[in-house]
Amino acid sequence: MDNRKIRNNFMAAIASVLAVGALILEDIRLPGNEMHPDIRNNRRFYPYFKDCIGAIDGTHIRASVPIEIQGRFRGRKDGTTQNVLAAITFDLKFCYVLAGWEGSAHDSRVLDDALHRSKGLKIPEGKYYLGDAGYGNKTGILSPYRKVRYHLQEFSDHPPENAQELFNLRHSSLRTTIERGFGVLKKRFRVLGAEPFWSFETQVEVVLACCVLHNHIVGVDPDDPIMGDTTSEAHPTHAQYLNKKIEFYDQMAIVVGKDLATGSYAFSWGDETSPNPVVELDGPVDANELYEAVMSTEGFAEEMLASAFDYMIQEEKVGRAFMAKAPKLRKLWLENYFSKNM
């Protein structure tokens, strides 16, 4: 079988999994109003977390993107990644996944996008998910106390001393569900840790497809040995930073993050349209698309834009980079270009 047939079969398989996943999702999109046994039958959690329906967090998956936009995909982890937001039930089933955000994006921005999408994360009234301190407390999201001991290992030799520490300990005990979910997902589907070689749109779809398959496996074989404690495998080297306040991190995210990450490639189950394609490095620039993109930029004289277009046609790499940018960054590039050449 030649490479083209392999690629076509692979893409067909991904499309089929996502199509089936959209149907499966109708049954698992939101946890029901019934209290989960893990809470109802545990005196540590009941009645304090009786309205909790799961946990939410983000994880980073390796991404391969054109060099012109790699800066937007570099976050606190090495290399380029996509930031994937997921909500999970206490049965370790993903009930919402938003993949494709750039690795530089602050987790709170990704969550905000998920909450405001037309088919985004919907949280039943009076219910909530557990989130880490980075999300803050908001309707439907319950976070722990900041600057208070939180992780289980911090209490191993030193039990809670006050109500806030006790709350954080129980919050952490429940929220490990999402860490376990990510750990199982990455252990089960090693492709998520490998260097991608297909388009970024496909990379996003692969993440969603893996989550769909994970849910199916959990449904038919909940006692799968891989479902053991894999919490430490989800973020093996970052435990020391989790739930620790980084000074001015939110302010830095506003100043820097919005200039880098746009979320224009993000995609979730149920979305009717695919994410915006990432412009690849190879291949010619489509002159008509480039002309429309350049000439539609507001704030410049027509003859100036025409001059920039002529330059990009001659320098194809520059043209490809321009097409890969968000409108705001395209305008910024043009301003810099005109200041140097006009």
TrEMBL record:
Q: Where, subcellularly, is it found? A: Nucleus
InterPro entries reported in the protein's UniProt record: HARBI1-like (IPR045249), HARBI1_dom (IPR027806)
Q: What's the cofactor?
A: a divalent metal cation
- Major localisation: nucleus
Q: Tell me which domain of life the UniProt entry assigns to the organism this sequence originates from.
A: Eukaryota
Any one Gene Ontology MF annotation carried by this entry is: hydrolase activity
Please provide the record's keywords in A-Z order: Hydrolase, Metal-binding, Nuclease, Nucleus
Domain annotation DDE Tnp4: ranges? 56-215
Q: Which Pfam families match?
A: DDE_Tnp_4 (PF13359)
Sorted alphabetically, the Gene Ontology cellular component annotations on this record are: nucleus
Q: Describe the family membership recorded for this protein in Swiss-Prot or TrEMBL.
A: Belongs to the HARBI1 family.
Q: Which PANTHER family match?
A: PROTEIN ALP1-LIKE, PTHR22930
Q: What name is this protein filed under?
A: DDE Tnp4 domain-containing protein
Give the originating organism.
Answer: Fagus sylvatica (Beechnut)
Lineage in the entry? Eukaryota, Viridiplantae, Streptophyta, Embryophyta, Tracheophyta
